[in-house]
Amino acid sequence: MMDRDSYFSERIYLGQNDEIDTEVYAYWEKILGKDVLDSVEHLYGSLNSIIGSSEYKTKDINPFREYESMAEQVSNANGKQGLYVRFPDQKLVFSEFFVPLINLGINDMKKNGNVFLSESVIDEYSNVLLERLGRVSLSTLMFEMYLCKQEGYLKGDSPEEEYDYYNEAFLGNTNYKRELFKIYPCLLRTITETIHNLTTYFSVLLTRLENDKRRIVEKFCAGKEFDSISAIQSSVSDSHKKGNGVSVLTLSNNIKIVYKPRSMKIETVYLDFMKKINEGCKYKMYNVLAEDVGDYGWEEYISYKSCSDTQELHRYFYRFGVLIFSSHILNINDLHEENLIACGEYPVIIDAETILDNRRRNQVNSAKEEINYILHESVLHSGLLPHYRFSKLGKGVDMSAIKGAEGEEYPIRIPKIVDICTSNMRFEYKKPVTHSNKNLAKLGEKVAPVYHFLEDINAGFRDAYTYVLNYKSQFITFTNRFGNLNVRHLVQDTQRYSMLLHTSYHPDFMQDGRDRQLFLCSVLKNYKEFQGDIHVPELEIKDMLNMDIPYFYLNTSETALYGSEGECIENYFENTSLCHLQDKIHGLCEEDMKKQQMFMDIILSNVNEIGVEDNKIEVHSLCLPSCQKDNKVILKAVLKLADNLMHTAIFNSDKSEVNWIGVSLIGSEDDCAWDIRPLGTYLYEGVSGLAIFFKALNSVIPKQEYKIISDAIAKELFTYTDEMLERKEDLEKESSGAFGGEASIMYTYEILYLISKEEKYLEYARKHFAILKKAIMEDANFDIVYGNSGAIIVLINMYHLTNDIQYLESAIHAGELLIKAQIQYGEIKGGWISDGRQSPLAGLSHGISGMVLALVKLWDATKRDEFLNAAIVGIKYENSLFVPEKGNWKDERVYSGEKASDRGSYSVAWCHGAAGILLNRVKIYTLLDKEHKTLLKDDIREAVKTVVREGILGNNCLCHGNLGNTEILEEYLKCFSDEETMAHCITLRQIIAENICREKYDCNNAYLFGYKLPGFMTGLSGMGYSMLRDINSNLPCILALDI
User: Fold this and answer.
1) Quick one: pLDDT at residue 76?
2) Which of 746, 773, 786, 912 could bridge across to 843 with cysteines, CB 3.0–4.6 Å?
3) Could you write out the three-class secondary structure of 944-964?
4) Rounded to an integer, what distance in angstroms lies between the CA atom of residue 67 and that of residue 74?
5) Per-residue three-class SS string for 236-257
6) Three-state secondary structure readout of 965-1002
7) Which residues contact 241 (CB under 8 A, 6 or more apart)?
8) Distance between CA 364 and CA 372 in Å, rounded?
9) What does the pLDDT read at residue 238?
């Protein structure tokens, strides 16, 4: 086999291969990219030799050579060797392949001998080994079965019979398996190493249990003896350090203990630290029993238990507040839903291996990095509080210890086997669902709503914070006990490693160790940004070649990072973890406590009970004084908003980039929450909107500080476009919309060009077209926020600005896709059902008005009747949702299984309801002929009455607030004479301006606990831009995507 099982880092290539094999290079360049191949050469030496040379010898250090005798046994393993394995509840997949391998491992275990090697241990060993062997083998076995089927070698009248034949006639044949291992030598290697590693792990565990029996009886069993293991779970954690992981043992005396194959010194110091904090708190924390035995340790098993009464719940959440503070000050992370147990009135952390973790400051000079560092140093970092993973298009999964629940669907796909035990067996990529954990506090069987206990959480946090604040010097002295301890450091997300490992077992990469290692070099992609030092991905690759999730650790008194086998990367961190802890305690103060509590209050508040959009104030209940428009007051208000944004702006080191801490909604409409992170790029609430505001402000009042911030945001936008163009792949998966998608970037460039007349913005709009053109292709949203309706309008704008036909052609293509997606029959004919919706929506942001606006504008640019006809059908369907007694259109969004309007909720805002529909009708009114205008007049009249009567809201933003509604009325007044409505607008906008001057930015925006949103549609920048339009009427209406 020429040692094809060896990895290229284990090889010595013979001779010099000057010419690279261009075909092989092109293959790997397509998979990895040129930058990764360059890094491979930098790290491992000549790429020509690695991918082009067939002559090599293996180094003496090749670890697989140690297992050659076992590899021979694996090759010859068959079902005649005695059956130890019992899987009574399932039909074992590819049993003729796996059973002999498992029996081989069991035989090896029995040779070692141990008093605690019981039937229950053998059963668990078998289950874990089967799972691990399946990971490395199934891709190849399914592929080979597929080839046999294609060649007509499989006998049977059904896929089930064909599978049985392959399993028995092929996999039951020792010669076939030997031939298989010759074709796939890495399969033989990974199987052999898997068996060896797991056997070693179990043998070591049992030996340690035997050696430590006396101390375990005394520490955990209150003197109660045990003589065997009743049950064991050894798949409760990821595999590290050649198959090591955590095991839970049930001893014959019915006591459970946890085995951890690492030092537990850090836990013992942590527990002492918690005892010291307890001195300043009302309720004591749970004192977990732990025994450190040097390289490993034993720990008490914590059982889940619900609370028996509300007083226990109050104490539970008080203690949770104490945990939030201690985790914050000790820089613990990764405390997700699996690492905390709700044990009655005690929240108990069961895995604190990342205590005193350190963070390598990203060397990229970016404003986002500055914000990420601030958030990293906040209470949000530990994982105890809600945090959303895999977020995209406003959706994500909360994996926090306090709220992470089962049944949540991840917005990512992972491989799952389908059509199991048939000849059609294969991997399909499906969205996983979060499973049940033991982290949620309950009263009986009912989960306790966290937001009902905010006062308790705050009290626990405040008491712990205040106590440490008052005794800083004592705590700083105590922290010296954390010195010179080893703690785990997480470099990358486990999910990424898991996906890379899965793909590395593909049959294409199992035929030569070089190929498997080259594929795993994918982790070199952007390593300077993510891992920092090239030797970090080198160690990641080494661990994954061992089929492990990479493991790193640090010493709290050093700045080095260490690999799983002690490999040292010097000066990886700027400072030691211990110094960082002491600096953090030094920095405690009242102002910081308030800031951290604000973060907690925001992230834990229940948005679903607030009703952000629906807080309406009936106009007849107000006594609005008649006001005259005063541009001086309006300008003063705008400057007040600008000052606030300048004050909260976070620049990078040379002020060439800027960003803000953003608070945005994430989740579905009937189950959403706040998420705190740097502002994104898109117009709706990202930096694009701030770019527009500051550019417009600088055009009205030229000022150096406004220019600096405008240029800094522009740089971030340019960088975004350039990086997206470099990415190339998967651009069609991006959203295309004009507020929450790629069209919003292009539209921002259009507006910046119109305001400034600087050609660079138009040039970047042209560049961004290449991205938008691809994003249009797979749109499933259709609306103006996320979908192709927004893209159509932006492309037509670009056509008008440049007279370049390619933009109109792309808009036509998007329009044709939009018509194709329109419902053509039945009760909902004329509507669009976007991804995740149950029925078509009325309204501008996600509803028919947005689609209609795009189609009418496209008809106006092309005069193609199919676009106008589709728009008219859309209007007719939307008007079928009109409710005369409400003067409004039904809100078909579904909350807890019930449509909003069915429960009496009718929005009056740009996003949903009469205001947005009014803006649509006014904008298309100016484009249509007299016959079609008649269709719109009743809508306009009814919508205006409703917006004036019910459109005063508890918010001043553009999306669902007073400035948005009054700006829409002002757009209406450009087409129609209506003195009463004009007086209403002037009065309301003047009052808003005066309130802003008095620092009353919103009517009752209490749900953000004093935080002011910076974004365009929901925050200060959009409010400022709207009022600038009162001063400079030439500024276009962003709400309608005008130019």
Assistant:
1) 75
2) 912
3) HHHHHHHCEECCCCCCCCHHH
4) 10
5) CCCCECCCECCEEEEECCCCEE
6) HHHHHHHHHCCCCCHHHHHHHHHHHHHHHHHHHCCCCC
7) 261, 548, 551, 564, 565
8) 12
9) 82
Contacts with 864 (C-beta within 8 Å, 6 or more apart), sequence order: 812, 858
Residues in contact with 452: Cβ distance below 8 Å, sequence separation at least 6, in sequence order: none
- Is residue 329 classed as helix, strand or coil in its secondary structure? helix
What's the length of the chain? 1043
C-alpha to C-alpha distance for 292 and 276, rounded to whole angstroms: 20
Contact (Cβ atoms closer than 8 angstroms) between residue 367 and residue 669: no
Report which of 714, 926, 682, 893 is spatially closest to residue 790, judged by C-alpha positions: 682
Residues 6+ apart with CB under 8 A from 1017: 683, 684, 685, 689, 739, 910, 957, 958, 959, 964
- Two tokens at 1024? 């400022």
- Amino acid letter at 94? F
Return the axis-axis angle of helices 185-211 and 213-220, rounded to nearest 10°.
Answer: 70
Q: Are 795 and 805 in contact (CB under 8 A)?
A: no
In the chain, the amino acid numbered 867 is F
Backbone angles phi, psi at 740, to 5 degrees: -125, 35
How far CA 916 is from CA of 202, 909, 967, 1033, in Å, comes to 65, 6, 11, 21
624 Cβ contact partners less than 8 Å away, ≥ 6 residues apart: 984, 987, 988, 991
Using alpha carbons, select from 287, 283, 255 the residue that is nearest to residue 270.
287
Residue 420 vs residues 98, 180, 428, 480, 873: alpha-carbon distances, Å: 15, 21, 12, 56, 47
- HEC string for 142-202: HHHHHHHHHCCCCCCCCHHHHHHHHHHHHCCCHHHHHHHHHHCHHHHHHHHHHHHHHHHHH
Match 């406590």 to its residue by tokens.
593
**For residue 81, what pLDDT is reported?**
46
Beta strand extents in 212-355 (DSSP E only) = 229-233, 247-251, 256-260, 290-292, 297-300, 340-343, 346-349
Question: Which residues does 924 contact at the CB level (< 8 Å), separation at least 6?
Answer: 852, 853, 856, 857, 871, 936
302 by DSSP, 3-state: which?
coil
* Amino acid symbol at 326: S
422: Cβ contacts below 8 Å, ≥ 6 apart: 158, 159, 160, 162, 163
- Which residues are paired to 214 by β-bridges? none
pLDDT in tens, 964-993: 999 999 999 999 999 999 999 999 999 999
Ranges in the chain, pLDDT < 70: 1-2, 15-19, 61-68, 79-90, 361-364, 389-396, 407, 411, 436, 608-627, 668-671, 1003-1007
The two tokens of residue 446 are 């009912």
Q: Tell the residue number behind the tokens 């492309």, with chain if given.
A: 795
Closest alpha carbon to 288 in 305, 304, 268: 268
For residue 346, list its beta bridge partners. 343
Residue 441 half-sphere exposure toward CB, CA atoms < 13 A: 26
In angstroms, how far is CA 727 from the centroid of its own chain?
19
Integer Cα distance of 788 and 799 in angstroms: 16
d(CA 1024, CA 690): 10
The answer to whether 737 touches 790, Cβ cutoff 8 Å, is yes
pLDDT of residue 364: 64
Extended beta strands in 438-485, E state: 442-443, 446-447
258-316 pLDDT, tens digit each? 999 999 999 999 999 999 999 999 999 999 999 999 999 999 999 999 999 999 999 99
Contact 282, 257 (CB under 8 A): no
pLDDT, the chain, mean: 90
| Whole-number pLDDT of residue 1 | 41
Helix axes 513-520, 535-545, angle to 10 degrees: 130
- 415 in helix, strand or coil? strand
Cα gap 165→152, rounded to integer Å: 12
Cα within 13 Å of Cα(227), Cβ side = 0
